[in-house]
Amino acid sequence: MSNPTVLILGASRGLGLGMAAEFRARGWNVIGTVRDGSPGGLADLDVTVETLDITSPEQLDALRRRLDGRSIDLLFVNAGVPSTDGPVSAVSTEEFVDVMVTNVLSPLRAVETLADLVPPTGTIAVMSSRQGSITLNDNAGYDVYRASKSALNQLMRSYAVRHEGDGRTLLLVNPGHVRTELGGPGAVRTVAEAVPPVVDTVEKRAGTGGFHFVDYADQVVPW
Fold it and tell me: Does the global pTM surpass 0.85?
């Protein structure tokens, strides 16, 4: 039996790079995308590197054509940019649009474009956040980033409803507060500490079907 294959969109640094290394160490075949053509840390791993700006529909279509005929057991969409801290009134229209296009529209475009590479027993996972939970919003801050993750969750829910019963496992994953460029230097855990539990959860959920919003410890996150 051949080793499973994971396609990680956004694998040049941070959590994406950490997941590429972890999946490879577990025997997976890894395809990782980078935005600017430079492999970065992926150059040190035995993985396939593809160039993709996830905000470009043309580049998504080109990636789909290059991967034609491949079976992707796990599609993991890891894309996100931060926003200005504070209320939405503090954010320019340009920043609002950039955050929403990168964090919401582009991940769903990627899912829609690449999903047919994932077999009925496969998994489609998207990196979400605790900040996407409306129920858990009890301290405000980073309003536009929060809104982008809530919108991402809603659109993934719509995707799940449209494709109900097709067998694939659909996951929104909250990795926790991690010390990355997006998470900041004050985050609780390092990438090395955060990634293995995330991969554990994805592997545990594989093949179970349905749509789930879970954290790195496989606990359900309230909407």
Answer: yes
